[in-house]
Amino acid sequence: MVLGAAMEREEGTNRKLPASLAALMRRAGEGAPARPVDKWDPPHCGRIDMRIAADGTWFYMGSPIGRPALVKLFASVLRREADGEYVLVTPVEKIGISVDDAPFLAVEMAAEGRGEARRITFRTNVDDLVTADEAHPLRFAVEAETLGVKPYLGVRGRLEALLTRALAHELLELAEERDGRLGVFSGGAFFPLPLPQEEFPGA
After folding, report:
1. Which region, left, alpha or beta, applies to residue 62 given φ > 0 means left and ψ of -120 to 50 means alpha?
2. pTM of the prediction?
């Protein structure tokens, strides 16, 4: 069910999307560039039942948002606050939403060059193109359940993209050693992999 149908169902309970977000939705086109959300400081207007699942699917009131243009639109006004809360921001209001893991997925990558000259560019599920570098760092977390490594890419602000499992394997194949530490070069920066004791506590 697309968001519009979910909103129609919501109207019966008088709990509609905020007006400014509804207006953005009506103007949705094929894509949406990122807005200057870090410069906006509107009042917090509560939370809505919107969630980004770990696989990158956006939901509104339990129903997946089926239109890619809408997903890109909402992604363009997404911000992560200093306290970790995810909010959708317009110049006049901001509202909280839930995010299961990272808000975006990195679904493709292209690597150019070798060693310190390597540049790795990623495409996200909302079609951001991001080259890993100091401003867009790679971060490696350890999954508690499996003790496997989960790579994340800084996209903008505090927003990150989780690499798909297949892409994570592809990235780890590019790991090289520098000063006795394994890691990945990109954009003039070196991103170290977790040490054994970080990956396997007690090792």
Report:
1. left
2. 0.80
